[in-house]
Amino acid sequence: MSPSPAMTDQVDLTLPDGSVRQVAAGTTPLEVATDIGPGLAKAAIGAELDGQMIDLRLPLASGGAFRLFTNRNAESGDFVRHSAEHVMADAVKRLWPEAEYDAGRQDHSEKYQYDFRFPRAFTVEDLERIEDKMREILAENATFERIEVSRQEAEELFREMGETLKVERLADIPEGETITLYRHGKFTDLCRGPHVQNVAQIGAVKLLEASAVYWKGDESNERLQRIYGTAFGSAKELAAYEKQREEANARDHRRLGPELDLFSFHPEAPASPFFHPKGGLLYNGLADFVRELQGKGGYGEVVTPQILDVDLWHTSGHYQNYRDNMYFTEIDDRQFAVKPMNCPTHCLIFGTQLRSYRDLPIRYSDFGRLHRYERSGVVSGLTRVRTFAQDDAHIFCTEEQIEAEVKAATEMILTIYRTFKFDDVLIELSTRPEKRLGSDDVWDQAEGALEQALQNLGAKYEINAGDGAFYGPKIDFQVRDAIGRSWQLGTVQLDYQLPERFGLKYIGADGEEHRPVMLHRAMLGSLERFIGILIEHTAGAFPLWLAPTQVVVLPVSEKFAEYGREVVQKLEAAGLRTELDIRNEKLGYRIREAQVHKVPYMLVVGGREQEAGTVNVRRRQGAELGSLEVPAFIDRASQLIADRSSEI
Q1: Positions marked catalytic
Q2: What is this structure's pTM?
Q3: FRET partner for 351 with CA separation of 20 to 30 A, picked from 51, 191, 324, 542?
């Protein structure tokens, strides 16, 4: 928690209906709720001030846009899960008093966690016992208390309790920040909050899994035991979550990818996927789709080195701000870095010539391989890897061209998402982070330019404060998949820093030198991550145009294998990716196998089809198409592919 600003006598709170309520400085949100009505005060779970979630017991030092949450609001889940996190730690301590608890989770949008100093791994049976104990604690109806203490008081308390990890965590709190404890019943923890009023507002809890982790994520530190869980305001919400989780497990790309023979992972290259031939078709199909759109949009594709002198990364600022995620090597007594991003190399290309304003905008695209060091504890399948390629692009333009370029990039991004049936898209404007390059004046200018472009587009967007890149603000695009999960994919980032750091210039209409503006743009994000998301979005049933195998031909018996080969030749000549399955297995088994492998079309051929020159068309889902002449089937499939249709 940041130090509170000096209090004024009164603060003005703007409620969701636009009305303004004036209260005395130091009034808590719970007191505001009580003043509005006793029913609201009893039901209130948390509050929000100027977009930041706050505790009901926090004295208000300033005014702003103000909201109160009850369990009817989706946002209440964050308060519920954060509070359930404390209940879980309480349960562990009651069962094993010798256990020490470390820190919880910062993001409570879906789940919670706690790390424990514990002599062994938690078992499934342990989790069941903890969950039962948590329900006992919920029935106690204890109230959460927010307590401000001095650093010395906190240290003395946790030393007396034997919680040495908490004593060490105190050192992470900057001098001058308010130190708060939260207590329910006999359990106390060092915490900024916010929390619900009492444990009875936690309607349902569920523990998900346990794992070993390193303290503070550092592999040189001791191993702790982590427990993950989730919680909701009602059992109905938990049941809906469990149903979604069951569906997510069935769609898990880490299982489906190998089953569909798309990719594998190997210890010889940790967190680095190996794409098999079918995965390669998928990978290159995505890249070709993006290349087609970029070609129409005036992009020129470049190819740049993967290893560059470390001085380049000093110039770009990546070394100062990103080196912990970079790989380094030494060649001929010179230090080099493996490329984690393409942007500095594109600056070098732009700088090879003296540019005119007539040349701008210049748009470079790049599918170059990138490498970033991700800690072993955070890598996960294709969605978090150490080597990947982005559908990356950088646009060099004038100030006056920013709006048009942002508009064009946004339209291209939304076109891609519509193609893949990502119909629910959230646009966020992410503003300056705490660790950044450049002056506040430059950031003001950059943030204003992006916001103006979005407003002129008529796009609905939200402000995501503090989540911009270190070199500039950005527009992020989040999509919801087929089972309602949110994924951040595309981004358009405005950068005044790199053109300045690389001394880039162009000659303006006035004959003077000017500095170009740089836009960083990705649409799918990394191809690896997008493939993982797409597998789960489609449950592996890719659209026809992208499916690695589009058609499988199934002769009823060996007797019709030759006709099957003739059909395959015609399909392949038309450009359809086709397989012939003449294994000595029953037809029903081979059909089921094709369905398991998500092949869009199964063409069954027997005596009747051979005589008529037709195929019996089965789809992986939906009604059978029945008998079609081979040219008619080719026309149908080819048109769907040309349209990049999601239908089959």
Answers
A1: 343, 372, 390, 392, 394, 474, 520
A2: 0.82
A3: 324
